[in-house]
Write a structure and sequence with these properties.
3-stranded antiparallel β-sheet, mainly beta, 18 strands, 3 helices, 15-stranded mixed β-sheet, outer membrane lipoprotein receptor (LolB), chain A, single chain, about 240 residues
C-alpha cells in the first residue's frame, strides 16, 4: 500500500506551474496528445479531504473520507460516519445517521444541477483530472506563457452537444481547467494542485462552478493507493426517505 500525506510537499506541484521534473516547455501538439493518453491506472484509491459545498445559497464544510473502486464505485463517508454516499454506474444513494433519513436517485438529479449530462465515468474522470474525450491538436484556441487552451465547438457529452475547452499545462500535461457550455449554462472544473502517486498525477484542489458560482470545493489532505478496498453501505430499514425536488 502506498500512502502519501500532502504535508510532505516533495511531490506536490501547482497545476499552472512547471513540474518538478524540469522546466522544459512542450509544444501544444505534444501537450494535448499526452493529456489525451492519460488514464486512471490505480484500481483502488482512498483519500481524506475537506469538502465545501453550497446548500441553500450557503457554503457548508465537512471532513470526509472517500474511496474509489475504479470504474465501479465512489464511496464518501462524512466525519464520524454521520452520513454516507455511494455512487455507482446506475445510482446515487445517501443516508444520514443523525437525521435518520436517506435518498436514492440517479444521475439525472446531478445533471439537472450542473447543466450537463454526466455519468459515473465522467464524474470519476473529473475528480481525477482526466479528459472525458480527446481533443484534437487542431482545436488549439489560445496560447499563453504557461498554458494552452483547446476548444471543441461540437463536443458530444452523453449525446448532448456542448462547447468544451480544456487548459493544459505545457510542462507536465496536467489539466488546469475544463469547461462545458450548453443551453446558456457554463460548468467549470478548476484544478490548482496535483500530487504524484503510483506514477499518476492526481488533483488535490478541485473547484466546481456553475455560471461563475462556486458550488463544490475539494481539498485533499492525504491520499493512498490500495491493493483492495472495503465499501460498507447499507441503508437502515427504519430511516425516512427524502423526496428530492
Amino acid at each position: 500500500m502506498s500512502i502519501i500525506f500532502l504535508s510532505s510537499c516533495s511531490l506536490l506541484y501547482n497545476a499552472s506551474k512547471n513540474s518538478n521534473d524540469g522546466d522544459r516547455k512542450y509544444s501544444a501538439q505534444k501537450s494535448i496528445k499526452s493529456a489525451n493518453k492519460k488514464t486512471n491506472t490505480i484500481n483502488y484509491i482512498q483519500a481524506k479531504a475537506k469538502v465545501s459545498f453550497r446548500d441553500n445559497n450557503k457554503m457548508k464544510s465537512n471532513t470526509v473520507t472517500f474511496r474509489i473502486s475504479s470504474n465501479k464505485k465512489l464511496w464518501v463517508n462524512a466525519s464520524l460516519g454521520a452520513a454516507r454516499i455511494l455512487i455507482d454506474q446506475d445510482s446515487i444513494k445517501y443516508y444520514n445517521k443523525i437525521e435518520k433519513n436517506f435518498f436514492v436517485t440517479d444521475f439525472d438529479y446531478v445533471n439537472n444541477r450542473i447543466g450537463i449530462q454526466a455519468n459515473f465515468q465522467i464524474l470519476q474522470n473529473l475528480l481525477l483530472g482526466i479528459l472525458i474525450e480527446e481533443f484534437s491538436p487542431s482545436s488549439l484556441f489560445k496560447r499563453f506563457e504557461d498554458s494552452y487552451v483547446f476548444k471543441e465547438n461540437k463536443y458530444l457529452l452523453e449525446s448532448q452537444p456542448v462547447e468544451s475547452t480544456v487548459t493544459i499545462n505545457p510542462y507536465n500535461f496536467s489539466i488546469i481547467k475544463q469547461t462545458f457550455s450548453a443551453d446558456e449554462n457554463l460548468f467549470e472544473v478548476v484544478y490548482d494542485d496535483y500530487i504524484e502517486i503510483e506514477n499518476q498525477n492526481i488533483p488535490t484542489k478541485i473547484k466546481f462552478l456553475n455560471n461563475g458560482v462556486l458550488n463544490l470545493n475539494i481539498e485533499i489532505k492525504s491520499i493512498s493507493a490500495l491493493e483492495k478496498i472495503n465499501i460498507p453501505f447499507r441503508i437502515p430499514k427504519n430511516y425516512k426517505r427524502i423526496e428530492l425536488e
